[in-house]
Amino acid sequence: MSPSSDATRRSIAESVVDFPFDDRQDFDDATRGLVARAVDRQVRAADGRVVWDLDAYSFLDDDAPDTANPSLWRQGQLLIQDGLFEVVPGIYQLRGFDLSIMTVVEGETGVIVVDPLISKETAAAAFALYTEHRGDRPISAVIYTHSHIDHFGGVKGVISVDDVRSGRVQVVAPAGFMEAAVSENVFAGTAMARRAGYMYGAALPKGPEGQIGSGLGQTTSTGEPSLIAPTIDVGHTGEELVLDGVRIVFQVTPGTEAPAEMNFLFPDHRALCMAENTSHTMHNILTIRGAQVRDAHAWAHYLTETIELFGDRTDVVFASHHWPTWGHDRALEFIAVQRDMYLYLHDQTLRLLNQGHTGPEIAEMMQTPPALTRAWHTHGYYGSVSHNVKAIYQRYMGWYDANPANLWAHPPVEAARRYVAAFGGAEAAVALARTAYDEGDYRWTVEVCKHVVFADESDEDGRTLLADAMEQLGFGAENGTWRNAYLAGAHELRHGVFGTPSTVSPADFAMALSPSQIFDAIAVRIDGPRAWDEHLRIGWRFTEPDETHVMELRNGVLVHHPVDGLDGQEDLQVTLTLDRATLLGMVTQQLDLAGALGDGRLVIDGDATVVLTLVGLADAVDPNFPIVTP
After folding, report:
1. What is the 3-state secondary structure (H, E, C) of 256-292?
2. 3-state SS assignment for residue 218
């Protein structure tokens, strides 16, 4: 790894010169209400594997080195303040056990758990610290604030399916939760998981020259994720529930930070949970791991609604990341400034867009108001002005900037070969890039060297210089995910592809898929050109759930739809009778086909080779595809 260069050190110093490092309010808030810290800050799976290690970040106790932006370093110092904390009497938080945090609300007979982290192991460890200091209380309800895995994945670490089926525990979530939670992790899950390895720096060593956090939390745990379906869907703003004697008033906010999300007030505690709609960072309008573009306009206006709905009944604001904000005036100002930040980016992007500027141009032009810049919680530790502006542009205008020269550009490898030839060959291109590196223009260095590597990935001079420049960009980044992405790219250039460290499709996600969603997942894997000349018609009769479907493959497209029954359906070449679990076994190739046919779990009427043809047309996914090399 290259050391921090003079240019990087100058760039870092200039970028933080006006930052209010003497403002220690966040440190006071991050440690306020501490009840106890965990003795062991490592969490292990049943097989002994470490799935969470906060001790690995002990280096953050020191001052910021020259290989890290002091602002991001400061954020990391705040995020390692771990333990059990009292928000107000009756509401407690477990911080430092995962990317997200868990909240525990004490009721009349037990407790309500809000957002049980990513992994069963970390959720269990966090709740164990609560019970150690507050007593062994049964869980009466679980609330998922929204549909991202760091807010529900650890649920089976605190409750079981039997708890829910028996009625002992209610699970509450915003309407649309299950569809949003499952679809995001299935249809594009392979690519998202691979890219998340870059975003969170999952394969990077933790340390001053490596991964120091992601801005939202330090990193993601690597234990076993899980999912239990909600028993109560919150469908409208103003809906009120009483769970274990605790009154809760909800505000639904779909299309903000998640497709299904909700804020809610505990009126008897004057405590407002903001899910992930406010946090102590600028959030993502489009996360760099990939997702659907979020609606910054709707997000901001929901925050205005939050203030109108709950402002006069709120004395503390907390969320599922970071630390609370106490005091009526401070809490409302915190929400208002977060609102202003998202709306400013939205409105100014649209203003400049309508003057003919493109996304990359607007990202360079955008200046935020001093009042927003002075607030630490608007800094781009997780989202950034640059990629959020481009996301807003994308939402309205798409990928095309209207310049016909960009309408049919060459793909990366073909463009790279032509660029390198135009530079006068690889050696000349690297020499040009090295001059840019020596001048501190690392953005141009990576632009030139990426073409060298895509033209010939075996070019060691190009790879080394590209890695060096990416490291310098990472060292200087205030944004945690940008730092991780740059350093992850450099790591793969030096050491090879590290793949996808996280689980791509947890079993509970697959079991939550409806037959239609399973068919959709198959459809996006059909190799269209190989399937052009095939015409297949298949009937599906499900015993669980009680559904029938007709599937047709034609013109390389797999079409399916539910029907009332298969009687009268013409030209079916084969009919399968089975349950959803058996279909999943077939799709994942984990089903003992002979055994299923023998015991009746699968009944095939007609030409069984039709099914084999369909399976043979489905492409395998590659969770280890290259990113910084062709």
Report:
1. CCCCCEEEEEECCCCEEECCCCCCCCCCCCCCCCCCC
2. coil
| Element (DSSP H or E) covering residue 7 | helix 6-15
Residue indicated by tokens 């960072």: 281
The number of C-alpha atoms within 13 Å of 165 and in the hemisphere containing its C-beta is: 3
Distance CA 573, CA 609 (A): 10
- Say how far apart CA 342 and CA 380 lie, in whole Å: 12
pLDDT digits (tens, 9 = 90+) for 175-223: 999 999 887 767 888 899 999 999 999 889 999 999 999 999 999 999 9
Q: Tens of pLDDT along 58-116?
A: 999 999 999 999 999 999 999 999 999 999 999 999 999 999 999 999 999 999 999 99
Q: Token pair of 297, please?
A: 């306009």
What letter represents residue 240's amino acid?
A: E
What's the CA gap between 352 and 360, in Å, rounded? 11
Residue 502 scores a pLDDT above 80: no
- Spatial CA neighbour of 284 closest among 155, 186, 173, 195: 195
For residues 301 and 295, give the distance between their C-alpha atoms in angstroms, rounded to a whole number.
Answer: 10
CA 513 to chain centre: 20
User: Is pLDDT above 60 for 530?
Assistant: yes
Q: Which domains are seen in the chain, by residue range?
A: 6-389 (3.60.15.30), 513-616 (3.30.1050.10)
User: What one-letter code names the amino acid at 341?
Assistant: M
Residues 6+ apart with CB under 8 A from 452: 416, 420, 426, 429, 430, 433, 459, 461, 462, 466
pTM for this structure?
A: 0.95
